[in-house]
Amino acid sequence: MRPADWLQATVASLKAAGLNYEFLLAASERASFLHGLVVTLELALAAIVCSLVAGLLLAAMLVSRHRWLALPARGFVEVTRNTPTLVQLYCAFLVLNMLITEALKLSGGNPLTPFLWVVVVISLHKAAFHAEALRAGLQAVPPVMLEAAASLGFTSTRRLWLVQFPLALRFALPSLVNNLVDLVKMTTVASAIAVGDVTYQAIMIWSQRDNVLELMLLLLLFFSLLTWLVNQGGRALEHYWRIPGYGR
Amino acid sequence: MRNSFHTSTFSKFTVCLALAGAAAGLASTPAHADATLDKIKSRNKIVVGVMLSGGPFGSIDPATQKPVGWNFELAQQLAHDLGVELETLQVQPSNRVQLLQQGKVDVLIASMEWNAERGELLSFAPTPFYRVGGVAIVPADSGIRRWEDLRGKEVCISQGSSYIKPVSTEYGAIPKGFKGAPESLLALRGSNCAAAVHDATLLNPLVASSPDWKNYRTITPELIPGNSVIWVRKGEQDTVVAVDRIIQGWHKSGWLIATEKKLGITPPSPALPELHNKYKNG
Fold first, then answer.
1. Touching check for B177 and chain A: CB below 8 Å?
2. Does B39 lie in the same domain as B96?
3. CA nearest B189 in A: which residue?
4. How far apart are CA B268 and CA B260, in angstroms?
5. Among partner residues A94, A113, A212, which is closest to B186 by beta-carbon distance?
6. Which residues of B touch A208 (CB under 8 A)?
7. Are B69 and B125 part of one and the same domain?
8. How many CA atoms are closer than 13 Å to the CA of B282, on its beta-carbon side?
9. Helical (H) or strand (E) element with A27
10. Same domain, B145 and B220
11. In this complex, which of A94, A95, A213 lies closest to B15 when CB atoms are compared?
């Protein structure tokens, strides 16, 4: 059977079971749904990378002995962590973006795309959680080890990045993976500002066809798969980075 | 009530319940002729889903936090004419059909025009209470003069809007669907789309009188002008008859024309005098 026939047969048998997946037979809707899957992947990947980088910097600031570094970082973590992501996204995209656009008199091609705003908001939101997880890791490194490093002549910066941080990362890894699983699910807020992620495409399809349940099932399956992959990746890293004889 | 759902919706609904692990007890509810009207009478209350997307057709009064505007006036009058209490629930284009089908609201007065697909899915009182089409709003200095100029451009719109299909298939624009009109309009002001397409009844008053929108203009003629009707769940014929009689009464007495004037809706719709003339002798 050719793929098209196979698809048609599957849709027909699902229809018999009471599930309306006919949108898969309409080329444009199928294409936009598949594109939505790709956009969600792009969003998740971009936000994972950016959030980890930002989280790392924030954590370094949080444990800094300099108050001018530690205090702003603490303030940022508290504000970001304690407000809802959707509200942050609306504030950023609908308010901040509008003010910037009107101030700069940008008309037509706005370089600050909705996609960019979603990546920025999710990354910064999750960076706050990463920073707290990493701070727990940094503070779990035994003081004797830091003293040993200091006695070997490490400066405090080199000690942070070469001794304290590699251990902290291992301690914090399960929490970080936990945050990343949440991050993947959080990409669905993109649908609120018409970024063409998979949730958005599903809403656009079901608001025309009223097949909410069918698309919900697909969304659940897709996100389960994504979060499972993130989790597997985390496990593999835990295994790869384990220090024989240290911890478990 | 549950037995009166449209068949396919009903089967979906049961699957949904099974998934939630709560199917027990609901499938065995006994049948009624028209459950909606029964429910309204027995509770002595009608739940109306109203759209409050801003402007004279429906908004929230900032001072009192109460709904005001055309949709709400009609809901109040409908409850009054049925002789029951009114409860309103604010709905969005993206959830109004679901809320009605799930029985969260009894009827919808939600700027929702008749079209063939919706006619398959839901029942409605056939006498329209208004006629409305879509217009596009663009910055005054934009190069867009006609609908045809939207080809290949991004257009902000509400998720579930009936204008999505015509702007994309007829004029080749790329619809960007937001949760509702307020988000879509803010995105337009942030230059994230070339135009926004919504009901003329929402956009005309903005351009006419809102200082925030003085640098914007609208694109006409109205896109797919349609009849706004009151929607009920599929097959609720007694409710349809009762509501339709009330709407005809509104046309006959000229109450709708008076309400339009009272709310300062401009330009006045030519459909209302037309319908008034049709029903005043009937």
1. yes
2. yes
3. A98
4. 7
5. A94
6. 117, 160, 164-165
7. yes
8. 12
9. helix A27-62
10. yes
11. A213
pLDDT of residue B17: 46
Q: Are A51 and A230 in contact (CB under 8 A)?
A: no
| Helix, coil or strand: residue A84 | coil
- The angle formed by the CA atoms of residues A100, A105 and A111, to the nearest 5 degrees, is 60
- List of chain A residues whose C-beta atoms are within 8 Å of the C-beta of residue B233: none
Number of Cβ pairs closer than 8 Å across A and B? 75
Q: Which domain holds residue B99?
A: 34-129+229-279
* Residue B239 and residue B112 share a domain: yes
Any idea what the CATH number is for the domain that residue B159 is in?
3.40.190.10
Tens-binned pLDDT, residue by residue, of chain B (282 aa): 334 334 444 455 444 444 444 434 343 344 444 889 999 999 999 999 999 877 788 899 989 999 999 999 999 999 999 999 999 999 987 788 889 999 999 999 998 888 887 888 899 999 999 988 899 999 999 999 999 999 999 999 988 788 998 999 999 999 999 988 888 998 898 888 999 999 888 898 889 888 989 999 999 888 988 899 999 999 999 999 999 999 999 999 999 999 999 998 877 888 899 999 999 876
Identify all chain A residues contacting B173, using CB atoms and an 8 Å cutoff.
none
Asked if B130 has any chain A CB less than 8 Å from its own CB, the reply is no
Does residue B191 sit in the same domain as residue B143? yes
Residue to test with chain B: of A110, A204, A221, most B Cβ within 10 A? A204
Q: Phi-psi bin for A18: left (phi > 0), alpha (psi -120 to 50), beta?
A: left
Please name each of the domains of chain A with its CATH number.
42-241 (1.10.3720.10)
B19-27, long-range: CB < 8 A, 24+ apart: B26/B2, B27/B2
Q: Are residues B172 and B258 in the same domain?
A: no
